[in-house]
Amino acid sequence: MVGSGPELDPDDLPDGLVVADALGRVVGFNRAAARLTGVRPAAALGQLLEDVLPLEDLDGHRWWQLTDPYGGLAIRTGQPERNLLLPGGREVLVSARYVRAVPRGPLERLVIALRGTEARRRTERSHAELIATVAHELRSPLTSVKGFTKTLLAKWERFTDGQKRLMLETVDADADRVTRLIAELLDISRIDAGRLELRKQVVDPAAAVRRHVERTVATGIPEERFDVRITEPLTVLWADPDKLDQVLANLLENAVRHGEGTVTIEVAPAKEVVEAPVWERSGTPPRIVEGTAVTVSDEGSGIPEDSMPRVFTRFWRGSKRGGTGLGLYIVKGIVEAHGGSIRVDRAPGGGARFRFILPAGVPDFML
Fold first, then answer.
1. Are 100 and 113 in contact (CB under 8 A)?
2. Which residue among 120, 186, 271, 332 sits deepest, i.e. has the most Cβ atoms within 10 Å of its Cβ?
3. Is the CB of residue 16 less than 8 Å from the CB of residue 114?
4. Thinking of the domain 10-116, which architecture would CATH place it in?
5. Which DSSP helix (H) or strand (E) runs through 17?
6. How many whole angstroms separate alpha carbon 237 and alpha carbon 203?
7. pTM of the predicted structure, to 2 decimals
8. What angle do CA 248, 333, 140 make, to 5 degrees?
9. Which element (helix H / strand E) includes 28?
10. What are phi and psi of 143, to 5 degrees?
């Protein structure tokens, strides 16, 4: 072990660990392995590996006879992870490492890792749900595009210029919808991998908020429905302006579409304790972030208390008014990629209130 701390206890490992010696007898069997296999460590130690773990592949072949770790080619270093079956048909993910004292020498130790399939099944279900959602969301605009273009090509001379323009505008809007959905999918992929690319520059958050309100008003929403409150002095933000626009557009659209009454947008200096993103959270302590906070609230019915923990998860929808349910998941990923945080609670007027904070500052080379 490297370092001066205590040695790692195999029983502390989250995955099953089974170790067999040069004779194929079990010399290590941790608690996670016992939980996954239903075999007590005391009953496993000293027994032949193939008796303790009588694994079969999905075609019913005995795994240890098929792979023959103690025979066969001496250049092998292990087995990649794959699905195998325990007695009774229970699936388990198994990988193995062959330990040799010298290259091409006899096997001195066989180290087997066992994992349950529950986490992978959850991931597969999530991916399947994502694919189903995307397919459903793509079908409608693509059907519209196909219908209008086919009609125009077949009956171009029968339509007036006004009718043609209306159909082409509809096609253009549906194409934008498909483009946005594809962009969402790319964002989700990058967020999940912790590789969301940010092109940072100096950003004025107050100007960004005012610009988004003006755009929303231009779509036909009454200007008096918005109440913008700026508290000076604001700190300089070093952020990706396009990603910040994406966050603001999503929160304002949700407030207008799903909320009621006045939509209040507050921009103010802030300082608060922020948890690390999920992908960095193991052992990473909270930190204090000083920057700018943006709060968007409405006067609608709000979000039920029992739903608030799920607001930033995939596919959460606050109502049945359409949408993929991916927007707030992406918003959270963007904010956390900037080193900030976002939360939701109930506004004083009874509606939903979203508040995010982005850290202040610029890189040293700009000072």
1. no
2. 332
3. yes
4. 2-Layer Sandwich (3.30)
5. strand 16-20
6. 5
7. 0.60
8. 70
9. strand 26-29
10. -65, -40
Distance from C-alpha of 115 to C-alpha of 183, rounded to nearest angstrom: 34
Cite the beta strand spans of 76-195 per DSSP E: 78-85, 91-100, 107-115
pLDDT tens digits for the chain (367 residues)?
Answer: 334 445 668 888 888 999 999 999 999 999 999 999 999 999 999 999 999 999 998 888 999 999 999 987 888 899 998 989 998 888 899 999 999 988 889 999 999 999 987 767 766 676 677 777 677 777 888 888 899 999 999 999 999 999 999 999 999 988 888 887 888 788 888 887 778 888 988 899 999 999 999 988 988 889 999 999 999 888 878 899 999 999 999 999 889 988 888 999 999 998 877 665 544 444 556 767 788 999 999 988 888 888 888 888 877 766 555 556 788 889 999 998 888 889 999 988 788 999 999 988 765 445 4
Burial class (CB in 10 A: 0-12, 13-18, 19+), 192: middle
Q: Where are the domains of the chain?
A: 10-116, 120-192, 201-366
> Do the bridges between strand 226-230 and strand 263-274 make them parallel or antiparallel, or are there none, so unpaired?
parallel
Cis peptide before 205 (omega within 30 of 0): no
Write down the residue that tokens 């792979």 correspond to: 67
The CATH class of the 201-366 domain is alpha beta
- Which residue shows structure tokens 């989700």? 188
Q: CATH 3.30.420.10: does it fit domain 120-192?
A: no
For 328, the token pair is 């707030």
Neighbours of 80 (CB within 10 A): 7
